[in-house]
Amino acid sequence: MEIQLGLRENWKQFWLLVLINGLVGGMIGLERTLLPEIAAKEFHLTSTSVMLSFIIVFGLFKAITNYFTGVFANRFGRKKLLVFGWLIGLPIPFILMYADSWNWIIVANVLLGINQGLTWSSTVTMKIDLVGEKERGFAMGLNEFAGYAAVGLVALITSVIAGHYGLRPYPFIIGIVLAVMGTVLSFFLVKDTSAYVKKEMLQHKNVPLLKNVFAETSWSHKNLGTVTQAGLINNLNDAMVWGIMPVLLVQKNFSIEQIGIITAIYPVVWGFGQLITGKLADIYCKKDLLFLGMLMQGIAIIMILFSHHIIHYIIISTVLGIGTAIVYPTFLSGIAEDTNPQQRAQSLGIFRFWRDLGYVLGALITGVFTDLISIGFSIVLIGILTVISSVIIQYRMYCRSGARRVLIP
């Protein structure tokens, strides 16, 4: 069979991978609302740093796994890594349901980090392999839409179930369905995409090889390095929202259902918004999109400090979701744009390594400063760091020729 690049030409495999990434995102949604509540009410943890330890280990193991997924993608093939990631994920919902100590919750998040690093990285790389150069942004928008819409949807469902039947075990039963479906679909229906990379290499030789993939993706290449720092800051602020928002809302006497609504809006808007913003990344200058999205995030986070009513938090979650929807597919298509197909999987793995280290740094910064000073101080600090990231984008990145400008006519 002749290999052709393009979304339309490979629609069956592409939409299968979209579905699978929705299942991947749902695994994170299991924890999104409930773990801070479980930490406080069942395990009686009072230190914010200890409470956020599950985010720290999740981010650390996801970051490391992202890196090695990029390194091994060409050697072992994308499909094998995807299936292995799902096998790692099978025990997670059972551990969350029946853990009798916080240490078991930590173990579950070690496995979740590995699961996410293998599965999400593989689906990202495989979709980019399939669609070719012209539709990368749109493809990444669909991929991230599926993942983060599922995060929000599952977070909302679990909070509703918890409100009626308690924090455990019933909200986590959905995780068993997600993990089994992901494993079965990946093993029996997904096809490896390594041959598509070879096809693209023959068609597009205009992007030179990077001399040092790690150093240039991490910082020294102006575009790649700037995208990477923005990715790190994005997940740094997401760690704060994930870990602190439920705690803050509990302190303000919101119910578990209200907390579920507020915390779900952010990833749902983030997810659905990428159906639009992913395509924008194929048309407009990525520098402009990233600057705008990170600036929106920073302002929304700072406004948390001045909010009291549920409507305020819903608006903030919406703006934060829009800002993140603008940057997330743009991150991935930006990395793909400035790397040769031969090095793409490795460069994406390095980007995702630094991006998900943001979870570790965000949880550490939030936990330490909340314990030492206050939740308000942590929130403002994270918001300021996000605004600084937008300034770095504005002054360091450059637009590729032919890209439309968003902020400058």
TrEMBL record:
Subcellular localization(s) per the UniProt record = Cell membrane
From which domain of life does this come? Bacteria
Q: Which GO terms describe its molecular function?
A: transmembrane transporter activity
**Which terms are listed as keywords in the entry?**
Cell membrane, Membrane, Transmembrane, Transmembrane helix, Transport
Report membrane topology. Multi-pass membrane protein
Q: Where are the transmembrane segments?
A: 12-30, 50-69, 81-99, 105-124, 145-166, 172-190, 289-307, 313-332, 353-369, 375-395
Q: Which Pfam families match?
A: MFS_1
By its UniProt entry, which Gene3D superfamilies does this protein fall under? Answer: MFS general substrate transporter like domains (1.20.1250.20)
Major facilitator superfamily (MFS) profile domain segment(s): 10-401
Q: Which GO terms describe its cellular component?
A: plasma membrane
Protein name per its UniProtKB record = MFS family permease
